[in-house]
Amino acid sequence: MLKVGISGNLSLDTVKEFTADVEGLLDRTSAPALIFDLNGIEYLDSTGALALILSRDKAARKSIQFRMTGMSAETGRMIGIVSPEADRCSETPKRPAPNAWMRAQDVAARLSDRMDLLCLFVGDLAASLAASLVRPRSVRWEAVLFYMKRAGMEGLPIVGLISILLGLIMAFMASLQLRMFGANLYVASLVSISLVKELGPIMTAILFAGRSGSAFSAEIGTMRVNEEIDALSTMGFEPVNFLVVPKVIASILVVPILTLYADVLGILGGLFVGIAGMDLTVQSYLQQTKESLEVFDVVTSLFKSMCFAAMIAAISCHHGFQARGGAEAVGSATTSAVVSSIFLIIITDSAFAIMLHYIR
């Protein structure tokens, strides 16, 4: 039995030397079994993993038993991606099965680490935003305008379509119930109040998270994977100030406008149902809408949308900064950003609902 230790980086740059050494070893050895000790591998990419699998196949053709030992979790994952059957010839140290207490400790430790990173990121972002207020010229306003166009103007069609359909559906479903009581006119109140107070900000924020928040996370995640963020730091640029602040400012400026736009189109969608299906006039519908809404409702709706915008942009950029690995890591970061944003939108809206109830 021959045991060979492999250390260092096994990647595209070193795979030719590794393949030549393995072929020479297989030609010279007369041992019935060959063991590769992978404990010393510091970095392994898909090319290096493929070279290990091909070495196994070459050994099998020479009737030499082949086994890999000492692989780390990351090494085993990469080999498993290239060849899911590789675990048949691998040997990893057996660990005791974790019990419920150990799993709870692991979850708590990971959650604590993530919260630490999030707090550090939020602190850096708050400091950068405060510095931007003191020195407005330090902000990359060209980037702010670019993100306002991409997140705002290019998002008008989908936001408008969803809002009109939402207003149509709400007015139609409300008319089915209110018609029995002869209260068709109050459809305008139901549509306007629900859209301005709750559904308008929430739907706009969710669409913004799915459309623009995911783009923010994917952009920064790709830069992290390609080491472009490290290059920015080397050149003296602060990554948070250079990449995140323009996105947050653009989001805060754009999302309230999108919310107001969604409210107006949703009310117009309800107006269409009121005129076509309930014999209401335009004047009566708009008059009832005006009487149902107050300035406080509109102001709180816009303030809520600003909070949603800042939160979505920040959490999306944070997940982008945490991307490590390759394209898979960028996809995972983007998915986590959207899911986290939607979850926080619902939690924040619930908090707003409780606070506004007691304020009024």
Structure summarized in a few sentences:
The protein is of the alpha/beta class and 360 residues long. The protein is built from 12 helices and 4 strands.
Q: How does this model look, in words?
A:
The protein is of the alpha/beta class. The protein folds into 2 domains: 90 residues, Transcription Regulator spoIIAA, CATH 3.30.750.24; 235 residues, no CATH class. It contains 12 helices and 4 strands, in the order βαβαβαβααααααααα. A 4-stranded parallel β-sheet has the order 1-2-3-4. The longest helix has 39 residues. The protein is elongated and about 95 Å long. About 2% of the residues have low confidence.
Largest sheet: 4 strands, parallel
**Helicity, in percent?**
over 70%
Q: Quote the beta fraction.
A: 5-15%
- What's the mean pLDDT score? 85
Low-confidence stretches: 87-94
Number of helices: 12
First-residue to last-residue Cα separation? 81 Å
Provide the number of structural domains.
Answer: 2
Task: Find the structural class using helix and strand composition.
Answer: alpha/beta
Strand line-up across the major sheet: 1-2-3-4
H/E series: EHEHEHEHHHHHHHHH
Overall spatial form: elongated
| Rg measurement, Å | 29 Å
Strand segment count:
4
